[in-house]
Amino acid sequence: MIKQLFSALIIANFGFCTPDCGDRIPIESSLPVDASDKVPYQNDENISFKHNLGQEINYKASRDSGREESSQCDDCCTAVSYDYDKTYLMPDYPVFDMEVNLASYDSVRYNYILQVGNSYFNLNIGDYYSLVDSVKVGETYFKEVYKIKNYNDYNEQGIFPDSVYYNLSEGFLKIIMSNKEFYEIQ
């Protein structure tokens, strides 16, 4: 019995050890020069939204950009570094915060992710958004508006942001909650 256990330990030790990968070339990716221009918010900018029942909520924008390092592991680990550009919209009232996150994916593509509270909206996945020619929000018409559906499956309890209207020149235009209440830009 002890011989079998010892044999199993040796096989497991040598059978599952990480192979020698030699020198792995690090993966580096950068955001396109104009990527951050596609985020309409500036540092310290104030944005106001109005709930359909009348409550007005003010947000303040702050931007952060830089380079992050991480590891990508399959049989071997490779160093990965990528550019990011994050915009935070922080409310003056205890309701959801919002973010616009850009991160380089490879030398050609990058992620454009919107976050409202714990709900995520992806401008890279065509199944979750549609581009609408024009939309009336409040009393204003906006052109080239993305209507984006929340792609989180775990948000099915309680009230959560279900979909957003967003365009690249104005940002968040409308947030529709799961109970059909909504917030519109002022």
Keywords:
single chain; 186 residues; mainly beta; 8% helix; disordered N terminus
Task: Describe the protein's architecture and organization.
The protein is mainly beta and 186 residues long. The protein has one helix and twelve strands. Strands 1, 2, 3, 4, 5, 6, 7, 8, 9, 10, 11 and 12 form a twelve-stranded mixed β-sheet that branches. The longest helix has 14 residues. It starts with a helix and ends with a strand.
Distance between the termini: 75 Å
Which structural class should the secondary elements be placed in? Answer: mainly beta
Q: Give the mean pLDDT.
A: 83
Largest sheet: 12 strands, mixed
Along the chain, the helix and strand elements come as HEEEEEEEEEEEE
Number of helices, counting only DSSP H or I runs of 4 residues or more: 1
Shape: elongated
**Sequence stretches where pLDDT stays below 50 over 5 or more residues:** 3-17
Relative helix content: under 10%
Radius of gyration: 22 Å
- According to DSSP, the number of beta strands is 12
Brief overview:
Helix content is 8%, strand content 52%. By secondary structure, it is mainly beta.
Task: Set out the fold topology.
Elements: H1 2-15, E1 27-29, E2 46-51, E3 56-73, E4 77-91, E5 98-104, E6 110-116, E7 119-122, E8 129-137, E9 140-149, E10 161-167, E11 171-177, E12 182-185
Parallel strand pairs: 1-4
Antiparallel strand pairs: 2-3, 2-12, 3-4, 4-5, 5-6, 6-7, 8-9, 9-10, 10-11, 11-12
